[in-house]
Amino acid sequence: MSGVVVKKKKLMKLIEREIKTVGIMIDMYCRQHHGGVTLCESCQELYSYARQRSLKCPFGEDKPACGKCQVHCYKPKMKAKIREVMKISGPKMIYSHPILAIRHLMVTRKEAPATGKRK
User: Fold this and answer.
1) Whole-structure pTM over 0.85, yes or no?
2) How far is CA 72 from CA 18, 57, 64, 75, in A?
3) 107 and 65 in contact (C-beta within 8 Å)?
4) Is the separation of the CB atoms in 74 and 53 below 8 Å?
5) CA–CA separation, 10 and 67 (whole Å)
6) Which of 24-38, 54-68, 88-102 has the lowest mean pLDDT?
7) 4-8, 45-49, 68-72, 77-81: least confidently modelled range
8) What 3-state class would DSSP assign to 112?
9) Nearest Cα to 43, choosing from 81, 96, 15?
């Protein structure tokens, strides 16, 4: 398998895991605060936005956790929403999804690349 294919698979795996983690956090938040079985319109909008931002990250495989990134691609309103979700759901992830939570913590410890190193 060529190096380019391996890097692309690694990148997609990283981004897919991040999208899955954020989706679970939003789901936990929505169930607790909005009481539905499925995501409400506001939380679905937040999930779609977060997914879109992750897929379009300019850092590619060097993608840091969004909170540590020097390039702030979230709109202020959405950034505030996702921070609230993570503040509420993040600590609970260790009990409901421990492996994802630990992996997410490992990514948040990773240093963000310099802004000139976009892929």
Assistant:
1) no
2) 17, 10, 12, 8
3) yes
4) yes
5) 21
6) 54-68
7) 4-8
8) coil
9) 81
- Write phi, then psi, for 93 (nearest 5 degrees): -60, -35
Q: Which residues contact 78 (CB under 8 A, 6 or more apart)?
A: 46, 49, 50
What average pLDDT is seen over the chain? 83
Gap between the Cα atoms of 93 and 58, Å rounded? 27
Check pLDDT > 50 for residue 117.
no
How far apart CA 82 and CA 85 sit, in angstroms, is 5
* Chain centroid to CA 54: 7
Contact present, 86 and 26 (Cβ < 8 Å): no
